[in-house]
Write a structure and sequence with these properties.
Layout lengths: L2 E5 L2 E4 L4 E8 L8 E6 L6 E6 L6 E3 L7 E6 L4 E6 L8 E14 L2 E8 L5 E6 L1
Parallel strand pairs: 2-11
Antiparallel strand pairs: 1-3, 3-8, 4-5, 4-9, 5-6, 7-8, 9-10, 9-11
Length: 127
């Protein structure tokens, strides 16, 4: 059974940085596409970034492009989300999950059907 655990959240001022980690238990993370998603209070959960299995192709939500970076560290069996230039609108609970479906068409990488969610980590950005 895939188990994921997020860490690294916290309180930061606008313009600051955080690095979130998604560690896998009883699973080889390289075998899965992994997504980071977030949910702000009163809003629906949204995909922030996703990284493909093995080849590490990535995709980002428009709202975080150029500020967030998703990457793997195979030696630590962990997927990270480096968040720079944080804004108050980035506040929310951040989750990692495996992507049950991915596609790469016309240069566009897509993830969906997220499963095996972690418990989430809170990110709060103050203005």
């Amino acid at each position: 059974q895939v188990q994921l655990e997020e860490s690294g959240g916290g309180l930061v001022q606008a313009g600051g940085s955080l690095r979130l980690a998604c560690a896998g238990s009883a699973v080889t993370m390289n075998n899965y596409a992994i997504g980071w998603l977030r949910q702000a209070p009163g809003k629906e959960r949204e995909e922030v970034a996703c990284i493909s299995e093995s080849t590490s192709i990535t995709t980002y939500a428009n709202s975080v492009k150029g500020r967030f970076t998703i990457a793997r560290d195979s030696t630590k069996n962990t997927v990270y989300l480096q968040m720079n230039g944080l804004r108050p609108e980035d506040t929310g609970v951040y989750y990692c999950a495996t992507a049950g479906y991915t596609s790469y068409l016309g240069g566009t990488f897509t993830c969906r059907d997220f499963q095996s969610w972690g418990q989430g980590t809170q990110v709060t950005v103050s203005s």
